[in-house]
Structure formats: structure tokens, C-alpha cells
Automatic annotation (TrEMBL):
<feature type="transmembrane region" description="Helical">
    <location>
        <begin position="135"/>
        <end position="154"/>
    </location>
</feature>
<dbReference type="InterPro" id="IPR050622">
    <property type="entry name" value="CPA3_antiporter_subunitB"/>
</dbReference>
<dbReference type="InterPro" id="IPR007182">
    <property type="entry name" value="MnhB"/>
</dbReference>
<keyword id="KW-1003">Cell membrane</keyword>
<feature type="transmembrane region" description="Helical">
    <location>
        <begin position="107"/>
        <end position="129"/>
    </location>
</feature>
<keyword id="KW-0812">Transmembrane</keyword>
<keyword id="KW-1133">Transmembrane helix</keyword>
<feature type="domain" description="Na+/H+ antiporter MnhB subunit-related protein">
    <location>
        <begin position="105"/>
        <end position="225"/>
    </location>
</feature>
<feature type="transmembrane region" description="Helical">
    <location>
        <begin position="68"/>
        <end position="86"/>
    </location>
</feature>
<feature type="transmembrane region" description="Helical">
    <location>
        <begin position="209"/>
        <end position="231"/>
    </location>
</feature>
<keyword id="KW-0472">Membrane</keyword>
<comment type="similarity">
    <text>Belongs to the CPA3 antiporters (TC 2.A.63) subunit B family.</text>
</comment>
<feature type="transmembrane region" description="Helical">
    <location>
        <begin position="175"/>
        <end position="197"/>
    </location>
</feature>
<dbReference type="Pfam" id="PF04039">
    <property type="entry name" value="MnhB"/>
</dbReference>
<protein>
    <submittedName>
        <fullName>MnhB domain-containing protein</fullName>
    </submittedName>
</protein>
Amino acid sequence: MSRRLRMWILAVGCFGFAAMFGAACLRLPGFGGDSHPYGDRAVRAALAHRTANVISAVNFDQRAFDTLGEETILFAAVLGTVVLLRQTREERQVPPTPAHVALPVRLYALILLPIALVVGLYVVAHGQLSPGGGFQGGVVVATALHLLYIGADYRALERIRPVGMYEVGDAVGEATYLVLGLAGLIAGSSFLANALIPYGTFNTLASGGSVPLLNMAVGMEVACAGVVLLARFLDQAVEIEEEDTK
């Protein structure tokens, strides 16, 4: 495909997007007004499905398909990073050099690690009830594990971070989201429809129907993806170096 043809395809795509985006903006409510039809509808739908956190209701119920796209982007980004940063023939793996960490920093990291881990899991588990959810909690969990790199050393981090298992967890989280979506079709509804299980009692942990299930799938995928992503970059910085060709 020539450069000229690619530019024409890009121009047509940009023109089509600009036309549709402009038409959508013309129908938006006035800025600063007291009419918020989309917000009101989102709140009503969240309450009807027993989801206290309206943001999670939008992410995992009303617009769950959009969330699948966001999750897939992260999955593809991690996959691309794994491929690009894999060890090549011109590189070799060396033992990590122990780093000296000040005692106050070491103690702070070791104390904060279990606290951050529990907070991250709490945010994931209560995403349908309070601010947070799978994306936020997954990032906290992945970050918490890497406090061991500061509190101990890189070898200690490697012992609790078998990258292969986290790669599998990343794929399982992505696949679980898809399976839950397909289950909606099998149940006679639509893809990712919140119609698989009862909505439960409002403002309790078992509420929101399939919202907590999708939320936990995303939490697993984001946490594992974060660990794998950081592992590849840290391996390149700490353990991988070019072969001496001399």
C-alpha cells in the first residue's frame, strides 16, 4: 500500500469521525445547566440493578462492552511489551546486584506492603459499593507486591512473582470477562447483559448481579498485567545486558 493511499484512508476516517463526533456534540445538554439526562439515567439504572457505585454500574453494566475494549487494550499492550522486551541472542542474564537501602525506607516498605495489598483487594471486592473497582484495585495490588523490591531485594521479589503464573492470570482475567459476556447470550439476553444472576440486596457485598463478577475479572487482569509489565522492564534494567562480543 502506497503512502498516498494510506493518507487518503486516514483522511476519510478522520472526516467520518469528525462528522459523527460533531453531530453527537450538538445534542449534548448545555454546559453548566441544570439538566443532566445522562447522569440521571445512569443513577436510575444503577439503583434498579442494586449497584451503589454508579461508576461501576456504568463500567460493568450499562457500558460493559466499552470496558471490555479498555481491558483488551491493556492486555494487548502487555503482550506487545513481552514480545518486544524478550531476551534476544545478543543478550545474557546476569545475577542482580544487591542494592543498599536505608533502614527507614526498608522498614516503611515492609510495613506498607501487606497494608497496600489488603487495601487493593478490598477496593476490587467492594467496587460495586464504594469508589474504586477492578482497575484501581488491580493497580494497587500490582504496586504493593513491588514494595518488596524496596523492602528486601530483587531476588525476594522474583520469588513471589513467578512471571509465568501472572501471564496466565492476565489471560484468565481477560477470558473470564469474555465468558461472562457470552453467558448473557446463552441465557437468551444480550452480550454482557446483567441478567445472569439475581441483583441481590442493595448496598451489600453480594449485590449488583454480574457487576462484581466482571469487576473481579478486571481486577485480576489489571493486577497480573501490571506485574508482568513491570517485570519485563525491571528484568531489562536489572538482569539483562548485552553480550560482550570482544
